[in-house]
Specification:
This protein is mostly helical. The chain has one helix at 2-94.
Length: 95
């Protein structure tokens, strides 16, 4: 029984300073974790903002592509309906 009490006293005696030392490190890490959490939240906000901007640019690019396609189609249609006759007239006047 005396051996058990001696072991308990030795464990508590050695463990006390060890727990105190670990607690000191934990407090320092807690402060660092708070700072890191703050930085991560800021990065998260920037990434969300970028996601919205990318979506907006993607929509703009699709709109421009569709407008350009419509514009090219307009000219292609104009060429087929009235361009051939105009070119023929232009050649006849230059010859």
């Amino acid at each position: 029984m005396n051996n058990v009490i001696a072991v308990l006293i030795a464990v508590v005696g050695a463990g006390g300073p060890l727990v105190w030392l670990l607690e000191r490190f934990d407090k320092r890490n807690t402060g660092q974790h708070e700072q890191n959490l703050s930085v991560l939240k800021e990065i998260h906000n920037h990434v969300e903002n970028l996601g919205e901007r990318v979506q907006e640019v993607s929509t703009d690019v699709k709109d421009i592509r569709n407008d350009l396609y419509d514009h090219i189609s307009f000219h292609a249609h104009k060429e087929t309906t009235d361009g051939i006759a105009r070119r023929t007239r232009d050649r006849e006047t230059t010859e």
